[in-house]
Amino acid sequence: MSKKEEVSGYKGQALAVIRKAEAEIGDVLRITKNGQLYEGILIPRSEYGDEKHVVIKLKSGYNVGIRITPDTKIERIGKGVKPTFATSPPPEQNPKLPKVTIISTGGTIASRVDYRTGAVRPALTASDLYSVVPELANIARINAHILFSLFSENITPKHWTEIAKAVSKQISKGIDGIVIAHGTDTMGYTAAALSFALQDLSVPVILVGSQRSADRPSSDAATNLIGAVTTAGKAPFAEVAVAMHETTSDTSIVLHRGTKVRKCHTSRRDTFKSVNISPIARVQNHKITMLTEEYRERDSTRKFTLKPEFDEKVALIKFYPGMNPATIDWYVENKYRGIILEGTGLGHVGSYIFKAIRNAVEHDVVVGMTSQCIWGRIDMNVYDQGRDLLALGVIPLEDMLPETATVKLMWIFGQTRDIEEAKRLLKTNIVGEISPRTLAEE
Fold first, then answer.
1. What whole-number distance in Å separates Cα of residue 321 and Cα of residue 425?
2. Which residues in 170-201 are b (16+ Cβ under 10 Å) and which e?
């Protein structure tokens, strides 16, 4: 096969018409079909795609697939180059700006299209993130490196430990703030984990992600990253927070406390919401506005403590009608130390699993109760069902998010094996995971 015949990902009918036009990847094509005219750059096709479509990138930046029919005409009108990703040299840094470290763990914010499969894959290093967002040069002096290159569903408690240690190392160097690039799907879990692992922070630690990869015109990656770096370098608070779009537009970024944030939509750019609490701050036009008076202030002299250990022998169990009690029994038999129940409403589960819960408690398994509802707090004293669960030894966890409660209990058992101490810590508000009160109108 000659070089001109090597057209990435195309096959069958589509490949035949591309060969006829003597076109290669990166060439500019004019395609005429049904009286419509399309012009764009020929881009690679997923090897899993069909053989009847040609894909070009329009001047608008969007990709369009055109189905090949007998009346489809393709012409090569310009010589192009194969699409590649190349980083530019990092911009010169201003010595008067704060020092911020960007740690990349992967996710969509550090991803681009894999033209072999047509899917998005981790690809960009943290240095790439810096070089493609030159505006950062006017915000902070950037030290960027890659720790992992993982989609967030592949991140485990062991990775939380490594991230916490990496953050600690940067804090010891006198960095003014830290940004962690992370996939959005489990970013809430990691934010909670770091909130417990990084005790008495002296500077902000900001997790940031994006819902749409950097090569899409609608990407939120650059805007989110700018907001995160601005916060890390200049915000008056020293907490773990998540920086993401406040609305679907690019006008503002909000900072959510790491223990009180949840991803609420699969694809919207404003997917993250603070639950039962106000966001900490807003970044708009490079200006930071605090949205609450309740936050830990930045203090470079504060003595930071690292407690990065987690025990994975903790389960999160969602109650549902008809749930098999043997689910709980399995965790007890496999020596799990804790179970967080995601109950209904005010904190209930069916009475038909009470026996399994009693057995768990009798085997020194710590059992905590949260709610499947997003907003509000549990109250297990309202109904008999709840009071019966309290009598069994189930611990009510106020308005703690189920994800946060699970991470917290993993962290607790990473610090102690004492059951009574674990119960005490679980009920203690350590890093803002429990709101003092929840108003109905919230």
1. 31
2. bbeeebbbbbbbbbbbbbbbbbbbbbbbbeeb
CATH topology match: 99-306 vs 314-427: yes
273 is catalytic: no
Q: Which of 184, 190, 344, 370 is catalytic?
A: 184
Per the annotation, the verdict on 73 as an active-site residue is no
185 a catalytic residue: yes
| Domain range annotation of the chain | 3-78, 99-306, 314-427
Catalytic residue among 99, 234, 260, 263: 263
pTM confidence score: 0.82
pLDDT in tens, 265-307: 998 989 999 999 999 999 999 999 999 999 999 999 999 999 9
Question: Is 289 an annotated catalytic residue?
Answer: no
Confidence band (pLDDT; 50, 70, 90) for 90?
low
Choosing from 82, 156, 161, 185, which is the catalytic residue?
A: 185
Q: Which of 105, 108, 125, 230 is catalytic?
A: 108
Asked if the 99-306 domain carries CATH number 3.40.50.1170, the reply is: yes
CATH of 3-78, one of 2.30.30.30, 2.30.30.520, 3.30.70.1140, 2.40.10.350: 2.30.30.520
Longest CA span, the chain:
78
**Half-sphere exposure in the Cβ direction for 240 (13 Å, CA):** 27
Mean pLDDT of the chain: 89
